[in-house]
Structures are given as structure tokens and as C-alpha cells.
């Protein structure tokens, strides 16, 4: 697998015709109940406070779409290196059961753990995923590359933007692009820093009014790390280690009820640095962390 420009499979799967529009499921059951998935020709915004790990949610969805269902996807690495994105994708594949990620002995013998990781690594390496590494891309550069990807069959493109990059007519260009190319573009946007640390409330449409994404987004999904405001929800649910997700705008311009999702970001972070890996697990994890060749 080429880290910068991976092979795109000719197999097209994972999307279906619904209400006259091709819909690609996210693989998150509660989310798909509300929105069915990402629609072709739609601009989707994932919104959250800095550090609330919208990227981990995107990686989880991309894993389902591209690795499990062979739906060609692309990720513009405007904040992280391709190696980090690739490793986090691998981490998610191997962290379905968080406790097993931390204590490989629970799986049985070490060779069984290594075999499990090798199988997932092979799946990721052969998946139809593009990782595009350039943090200095202009909106015109991104649009040009999106056109190239669309010609190769890419259906979903993920972009993590710095807020400073959303200026001038960037949003208008992206909105026009999804319609013209009939693809889905998923933007990850931070709530403006002026709100962060003040109310810790679920992100809302108003948080996007400064860049018109509240108007131009076909869907807006808000993410909130529950650990930032306590461990028990207003419904009395234990929410420690969970993310609260709410569709604050769907394709019918309606809001939906929030739900909670197990937060796997901390599991991926456990293996972000070699120093966090126990000596007993270090050798087992080493190959898993070898950059793609």
C-alpha cells in the first residue's frame, strides 16, 4: 500500500439507493437510524470542540466504508501525517474490544494476537483508501484533487480543515463540487475557540454561522466528549468514556435526538507513543506500528 496514493479497487460496494439518492452507511447503527448514511452530492460537517476527536469518529466511519465495504474513500491529511492516519485506522481495526487492546493476553496466546493484527493490517493495506499529505493545500488545490479522486471512483472524501482555511468562497466551492462530482465530502470543523471552555454544551448550528456551513451543509453532526462535563448524563446514564453525538441538522433540515457512543480515541492514544506500550506487549505491537512500505 502506497502511503500517499493507495490502490483504488474496482469493486464498488457499501452504498445503496434510498429515496432517490445513493446513500453510504456510516456503520454506526444509531447514526444510520437517523440519517441512513452519507448521501452522494452532500456536504456533511462533523462539528466539535478542539480535542473532542471528530477525527477518530471519521476514521471509524472510513474503516466501515472503505475497509469493510470497499467503498473508495480519501482523507486529506491537513493536520496529521499520513502515517498517523494509517496507524490510527489500524488501531481502530484492532480496538473493537478495548480491553483486548490493552491486555492482549485476554485473546489467548501472543501468536493469536499477532495473527489478529496481521489480518487487520492486510485489510487496511488492500482497502481502497487514498491518504493525501499536504497541510498547505489551498481550497483550489483541494477541489482539483477531489476531481482527480472522483474520476478514480472515490465516493467519500474526508477533510480536516483549520478554521483559518474556511474563508472567502471555500464553502461555496465545496458545495458546488459535491453536486457536480456526485460525491460526499465530510468536513471536520472545530467550534470556535471563543466558546471552548465556557459552556461545554453540545455544538449547534450557530457555531457554523460564521462560515455559512450552517446553511450550506446538508447535514451537521455534533460531537462532544462526555468526560468534559461529567460522568452521568441528564438521563442518569453512565457516560464515562463515551462521546455524545447529535445530528443537529439532517438532509431534511431537522434535528435529531442525541445518543452515546463508546469513545475509542483513548484506546488509539494508548499506542500513539512507544513509551506507553508495556514491555510485555512491545514486541507484539512493533510490526503493527511499522509504517506502510
Helix-strand blueprint:
Layout: E1 15-18, E2 21-24, H1 29-35, E3 38-39, E4 43-48, H2 54-68, E5 73-76, H3 82-93, H4 98-102, H5 110-125, E6 129-132, H6 139-151, E7 156-160, H7 170-181, E8 184-190, H8 213-216, E9 219-225, E10 242-249, E11 259-262, H9 265-270, H10 279-286
Parallel strand pairs: 4-8, 4-9, 5-6, 5-7, 7-8
Antiparallel strand pairs: 1-2, 2-3, 9-10, 10-11
Helix pairs in contact: 2-3, 3-5, 6-7
Q: What is the structure about, briefly put?
A:
The protein has 293 residues and is of the alpha/beta class.
Question: Which keywords apply here?
Answer:
eight-stranded mixed beta sheet, 10 helices, alpha/beta, Rossmann fold, 293 residues
- State the strand order across the main sheet: 6-5-7-8-4-9-10-11
H/E element string?
A: EEHEEHEHHHEHEHEHEEEHH
Q: Low-confidence segments, ≥5 residues, pLDDT <50? A: 1-20, 97-108, 265-293
In round numbers, the mean pLDDT is 73
Q: Would you report the number of β strands?
A: 11
Q: What distance separates the N and C termini?
A: 7 Å
What do these coordinates show?
This protein has 293 residues and is an alpha/beta fold. The protein has one domain: Rossmann fold, CATH 3.40.50. It has helices at residues 29-35, 54-68, 82-93, 98-102, 110-125, 139-151, 170-181, 213-216, 265-270, 279-286; strands at 15-18, 21-24, 38-39, 43-48, 73-76, 129-132, 156-160, 184-190, 219-225, 242-249, 259-262. The strands form two sheets. The protein has an eight-stranded mixed β-sheet with strand order 6-5-7-8-4-9-10-11, with helices on both faces. Residues 1-20, 97-108 and 265-293 have low confidence and may be disordered.
Amino acid at each position: 500500500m502506497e502511503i500517499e496514493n493507495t490502490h483504488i479497487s474496482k469493486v464498488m460496494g457499501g452504498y445503496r439507493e434510498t429515496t432517490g439518492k445513493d446513500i453510504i452507511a456510516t456503520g454506526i447503527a444509531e447514526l444510520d437510524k437517523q440519517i441512513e448514511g452519507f448521501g452522494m452530492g452532500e456536504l456533511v460537517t462533523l462539528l466539535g470542540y478542539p480535542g473532542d476527536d471528530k477525527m477518530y469518529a471519521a476514521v471509524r466511519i472510513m474503516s466501515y466504508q472503505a475497509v469493510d465495504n470497499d467503498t473508495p474513500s480519501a482523507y486529506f491529511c491537513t493536520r496529521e501525517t499520513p502515517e498517523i492516519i494509517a496507524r490510527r485506522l489500524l488501531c481502530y481495526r484492532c480496538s473493537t474490544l478495548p480491553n483486548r487492546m490493552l491486555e492482549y493476553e485476554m485473546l489467548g496466546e501472543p501468536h493469536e494476537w499477532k495473527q489478529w493484527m496481521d489480518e487487520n493490517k492486510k485489510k487496511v493495506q488492500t482497502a481502497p483508501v487514498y491518504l493525501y499529505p499536504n497541510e498547505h493545500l489551498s481550497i483550489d488545490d483541494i477541489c482539483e484533487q477531489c476531481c482527480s479522486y472522483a474520476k478514480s471512483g472515490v465516493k467519500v472524501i474526508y477533510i480536516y480543515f483549520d478554521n483559518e482555511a474556511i474563508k472567502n468562497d471555500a464553502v461555496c466551492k465545496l458545495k458546488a463540487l459535491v453536486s457536480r462530482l456526485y460525491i460526499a465530502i465530510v468536513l471536520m470543523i472545530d467550534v470556535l475557540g471563543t466558546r471552548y471552555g465556557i459552556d461545554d454544551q453540545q455544538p449547534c448550528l450557530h457555531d457554523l454561522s460564521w462560515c455559512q456551513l450552517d446553511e450550506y451543509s446538508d447535514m451537521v453532526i455534533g460531537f462532544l466528549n462526555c468526560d468534559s462535563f461529567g460522568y452521568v448524563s441528564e438521563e442518569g446514564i453512565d457516560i464515562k468514556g463515551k462521546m455524545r453525538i447529535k445530528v443537529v441538522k439532517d438532509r431534511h433540515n431537522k434535528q435529531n435526538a442525541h445518543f452515546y457512543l463508546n469513545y475509542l480515541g483513548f484506546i488509539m492514544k494508548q499506542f500513539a507513543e512507544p513509551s506507553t506500550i508495556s514491555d510485555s506487549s512491545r514486541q507484539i505491537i512493533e510490526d503493527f506500528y511499522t509504517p506502510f512500505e
